[in-house]
Structure formats: structure tokens, C-alpha cells
């Protein structure tokens, strides 16, 4: 049986309303990230992964900056534990490889360390606070 969702690469221009809705739900409302930190002005220069349910509902997303920094991985609560985050990351990692990048990095929330480790990411440095949440930089050699 296939996944009950699809993941596609989109531009900010094409996906903005759907991407905004997911990130507002997960980061701003659920995690309490201030809006001015969430909307950092970088989205127009990123490749975005957008996950849709088979019914066409926006259910998850992520982004990658041109130099290979991946972030804003968000999955709506009812879609967690269904490998959706992994599918979003695999889409962004495939794009990084297609662009010829040799390494990518994330600023991982510490609660998500097992997820990123499962994809092969390795911690770099010390825990730091970002938007009031503990994070650690992780890298993956492609």
C-alpha cells in the first residue's frame, strides 16, 4: 500500500497559502514561536517541500535554502508517526543532491534528535536556544 499523501517541491510563490497554514498551526500556535521569527523573509529564496493528503489537504512542509540549510519541517499533529516527516526530508535531500550539494545542515529541535539521527544527521556543537526552544546544529554528508 502506498502512502496516504504526496510530497512535491514548490516555490514560495506557488505554495505560500498552504505553507503558511501549516507553519502557523505547528510553529506559531502549537509551539509558541513568535510570528516575527517564523516569517524571516527567507522563504522566497527557498525550495519548499509540500505534503498533501490524498484529499488535497496541506498536511506538512519543509524548506531548504540555496546553500543546503534545511528547516521549517512541520507536520500537522494528526499526521505524525506516519513517516510524513521522513518523506518531506527525503524530498529535500534528493533536491540537495540534484543541486550538487555535498552537505546539508539543520538546526534541530532537541526533541527531534532521534528523527534526524535516523536520517544520518550528526550533531555539531552545543545546544542553543532559538525562538525559546532548545536546538542543536546537525549535518549530513551527501
Can you describe what's shown?
- The protein has 142 residues and is of the alpha+beta class.
- 28% of the residues are buried.
- It is globular, with a radius of gyration of 14 Å.
- The chain has helices at residues 12-30, 35-38, 84-98, 113-118, and strands spanning 5-10, 46-53, 58-65, 69-75, 103-109, 122-130, 133-141.
- The chain is 31% helix and 38% strand.
- It has a seven-stranded mixed β-sheet, with helices on both faces.
Task: List its traits.
142 residues, alpha+beta, 7-stranded mixed β-sheet, 4 helices, 31% helix
Brief digest:
The protein has 142 residues and is of the alpha+beta class.
Strand and helix map with partners:
Blueprint: E1 5-10, H1 12-30, H2 35-38, E2 46-53, E3 58-65, E4 69-75, H3 84-98, E5 103-109, H4 113-118, E6 122-130, E7 133-141
Parallel strand pairs: 4-5
Antiparallel strand pairs: 1-2, 2-3, 3-4, 5-7, 6-7
Amino acid at each position: 500500500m502506498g502512502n496516504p499523501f504526496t510530497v512535491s517541491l514548490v516555490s514560495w510563490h506557488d505554495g505560500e497559502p498552504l505553507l503558511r497554514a501549516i507553519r502557523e498551526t505547528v510553529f506559531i500556535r502549537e509551539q509558541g514561536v513568535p510570528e516575527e521569527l517564523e516569517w524571516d523573509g527567507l522563504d522566497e529564496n527557498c525550495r519548499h517541500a509540500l505534503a498533501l493528503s490524498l484529499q488535497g489537504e496541506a498536511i506538512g512542509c519543509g524548506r531548504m535554502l540555496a546553500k543546503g540549510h534545511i528547516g521549517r519541517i512541520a507536520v500537522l499533529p494528526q499526521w505524525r508517526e506516519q513517516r510524513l516527516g521522513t518523506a518531506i526530508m527525503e524530498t529535500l535531500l534528493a533536491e540537495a543532491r540534484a543541486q550538487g550539494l555535498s552537505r546539508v545542515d539543520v538546526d534541530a529541535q532537541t526533541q527531534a534528535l532521534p528523527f534526524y539521527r535516523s536520517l544520518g544527521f550528526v550533531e555539531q556543537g552545543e545546544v542553543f536556544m532559538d525562538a525559546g526552544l532548545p536546538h542543536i546544529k546537525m549535518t549530513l554528508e551527501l
